[in-house]
Specification:
With 328 residues, the chain is mostly helical. The chain starts with a helix and ends with a helix. The N terminus is likely disordered.
Length: 328
Amino acid sequence: MRRAAALFARWEALLLVCLAAAFAFGAGTSPYFLAASNISIAVAGAMPGAIVALAMTLVIVTGEIDISVGSITGLCAAVMAVCLERGLPIAAAMPFGFAAGTLAGLLNGALVAYAGLPSLVVTIGTLALYRGVAQIVLEERGVSNFPEWYQSIGFGTVAGTPVPWCLLIFGVLFISFAVFLHGTHWGRSLFAIGNNREAARFSGIDVGRSVLGVFATSGAMCSVAAVVLTAYLASARADTATGLELPVITAVVLGGVNIFGGSGTMGGVLIAVFVLAFVQNALGLAGVTPEEQQIVTGAVLIATLVLFRASGFIQAWVAVPRRSRKTE
């Protein structure tokens, strides 16, 4: 009994149950849900947010938050689109988008790490700032003359399989982030910062540089997401990725990362990404509008916070020796 309780107290086990429930719900909603083509579309559509969620995990583990990820992604898309308009091939335009995203992340990180400003307030401000810059750069026009090889990054599949190319990109990034966070001294230092910033500083961790690094990484991953998203949509506009921050933060928190920092796993975030992807896909097949899906995503975020607290109580109960419970 105690071992079973310990198993189900693990957040990842609960997420696997949720993933199975999402598949059951989808299969019952539409006969097309389990088709390989539909699964491929659902996965490809989730990859831009999933890529950003990897970096958001690092940010939240340190006890910070980045609300500006959607605007940074839109800014990177706008920069690449303008470069394409001016005659640069898309392969040459992509580094400019990467530079724009990294610089935007560095600005966020510098204001938080060295100016001492709250990350929530900073990134709410830069959310508006970066979106405004994107609108100035690209105005109201859209750019859609992307080459076919580039569009295949977004929704193309590996020859002879339903596996999207963007899933392979995400897979490589996921392994890299998981190894960094869970298998290196630098990754473990982020948990220390999230648990107790002053103690981390006294133990020799350069807190400012670490915080700057996670925000710069967030900006860089937004540029990668911009590539995948513009390829998936086959177009780029100034309003690209509007609202991306909600599903990204929901995926990270649903994945078991403590919103106050200090704990979480990349494995949990991975499962959560697919739970959200298949739930949204099933809702779409059921005729639920995107606006109504946003309501569901927001409700999932709130419910996750409640369940996460309940899971903590279960883990605490499991940790109490049976003998001590009998003597109470």
